Amino acid sequence: MRCRVCRGRAAIEVRRHNAAFCGGHFVEHIQRQVQRTIDDFKMFEPDDRLLLGVSGGKDSLALWDILTDLGYQVDGVNLELGIGSYSAESTNYSRDFAEQRGLNLAEVDLEGEFGFNIPAAAQSSSRTACSACGLSKRYVLNDVAKRGDYTVLVMGHNLDDEAATLFSNVTSWNLDYLARQSPVLNETESGLARKVKPLIRVAERETAAYSVIRGIDYEIDECPMAHGNTVNRIKEQLNLMEQSSPGFKQRFLFGFIERGSAVFREGPPPELNACTVCGSPTTGDVCAFCKLQDRAAKRTGESND
Ligand code: SF4
Ligand code: ZN
Ligand code: ZN
I want to staple 59 with a disulfide (CB 3.0 to 4.6 A). Which of 156, 174, 215, 296 is the partner? Predict the structure, then answer.
């Protein structure tokens, strides 16, 4: 295999682009894919104040590296989820990355600031750990973005994440989620920050390869709460489809974004009220995060006694 650009020895093949690249040209290829996504979806401009959700995994750290290399000013925020040594290690990877590159990283400790951790949240509600975790991340990262006057909240979801989430939402016909699944969600008057996903053209194995080539240390271990996660099972199935039909995931996701998603956004958006506890936008009286916090904090208190 030869690099498409320099004809040198290729380090990685990207079958859906019918191409292979040496290390240096693969890095250029990935950065070009991300810049193209930012431009095509008008995600942000160089003078925007960007806040990136950083987990310590390959996707968010690779994205931080890509965006700073492309010349954007990006601060990070890490949410310590309280999932044993996994969370502590993930935070350390985020911290080390930021320190080595002189970048700003805000750290939020879920238990220290909100009185609960993800294992307690999963035990005290009907939500799975990943559902409680996703809700907590969305809430806390939005809160940090608004309080810090950031103009855009950047998330590290990759092509595999988005295709699997779309598949899950289609198979359960979750119309609300389908209406909101988008590379860009605009800021709302009700208090949600503008949210963007610049990695959606980059596959998971590519962020891993990018991180290795760029010498980025990241959390390799899988989260211990991930077992049974539906999205992970769907990813395995989509990988089988991708093997026999290169480009399957990209066609599925981008077909939806370009031709399907508008169908699900017809009609007025739901009316939002201010949560009576925290003031965040919600369709009811008390937002889902405050409800989760209420139950999970009691559980965390009991297990700490
Ligand atoms: Fe959170 Fe689930 Fe990911 Fe673990 S696997 S970090 S619980 S979303
Ligand atoms: Zn090359
Ligand atoms: Zn609330």
Answer: 156
